[in-house]
Amino acid sequence: MRILIVEDETRIAGLIADVLKSEGYVAEIATDGEEGWEKGGTELYAAAILDIGLPRLDGISVLRNWRKEGIDFPVMLLSAKSSWNERVEGIDAGADDYMVKPFQMEELLARLRALLRRNSKQKMTVLSAGDLQLDLRQMRISVQGLPVKVTPLEFRLLSFLLHHKGEIVPQSTLAENIYFRDQEPDSNAIEVLVGRLRRKLGTDLIETRRGFGYMIPEDAA
């Protein structure tokens, strides 16, 4: 599942992204309100973690804009303030949950899982390409109904490509979204991961576009 993090404090955004990735989510970061508004309005996310105190456009305004545009994914607000009137304003704007900084990452994960469970009937939890299925809730991959064992890195890479099905994804983008911030993968790390997935899933699933990146075609069989 893709989770959007809209947070201008890079340390906090990075920590949240690392925790989400360790749980198998695909985490993407926007560092100001306008970027977050645009990403949330043009790309598919299962949920968003949205800070209120953002540059360029505050989080409450971002949330109101999303709701006016009919964007209904669950949104968890983050704030450095604990005032009740700000919480009320956030909930009235369409927030599904609210956390005050500082917070424990374990609680954030638990609340996020609860939001996703409540919203699961309206969201896609299984991604597919031909005979391949990737179950985001069970963290499982199968081909023709038979389970395929993959590493967490392989799962995150395949999940990201399936979320961007039909799009060419550069190696640098893949690396940014599947590795933790303190990891420095080798220059050929993505190529090696793709090679391992091809051996497990078949050589035709992931296409290489030389000089551009990788993709899973819309009509992948």
TrEMBL record:
Residues 124-218 form the OmpR/PhoB-type domain. GO terms for cellular component: cytosol; protein-DNA complex. Gene3D superfamilies: 3.40.50.2300, 6.10.250.690, Winged helix-like DNA-binding domain superfamily/Winged helix DNA-binding domain. SUPFAM superfamilies: CheY-like. InterPro entries: CheY-like_superfamily, OmpR/PhoB-type_DNA-bd, Sig_transdc_resp-reg_receiver, WalR-like, WH-like_DNA-bd_sf. PANTHER family: REGULATOR OF RPOS (PTHR48111), RESPONSE REGULATOR PROTEIN CARR (PTHR48111:SF37). This is Two component transcriptional regulator, winged helix family. It comes from Cognatiyoonia koreensis.
